[in-house]
Amino acid sequence: LPVQSAITYPRPGAAVPPGELTVKGYAWSGGGRAVVRVDVSLDGGRSWRVARLLGERPVPGRAWAWVLWELEAAVA
């Protein structure tokens, strides 16, 4: 499976004040393949940024679970 991902913070439709914001989420893959990168777009796909993966790195061929990620972003 291709990597699947979801944003968990902020919630959809949430009012976000100007300044720095930490966008958080999780991602998963299939077939024992690890998630090695999560790209996040905050402008409808016009540009993309690489999120930071959290936690331990999986053992190759044994990556059956999800991984948490986060991205620091400036909100205008």
UniProtKB/TrEMBL annotation:
Keyword Glycoprotein assigned: no
Any one GO biological process: sulfur compound metabolic process
Domain of life: Eukaryota
One Pfam family of this chain: Mo-co_dimer
Cellular component, GO annotation: mitochondrion
Residues covered by the Moybdenum cofactor oxidoreductase dimerisation domain: 1-75
Record-linked InterPro entries: Ig_E-set, MoCF_OxRdtse_dimer, Mopterin_OxRdtase_euk
Required co-factors: Mo-molybdopterin
GO MF, one annotated term: heme binding
Keywords annotated in UniProt: Metal-binding, Molybdenum, Oxidoreductase
Keyword Iron carried by entry: no
Name this protein carries in UniProt: SUOX oxidase
Organism of provenance: Crotophaga sulcirostris
Lineage: Eukaryota, Metazoa, Chordata, Craniata, Vertebrata
Recorded name of the encoding gene: Suox
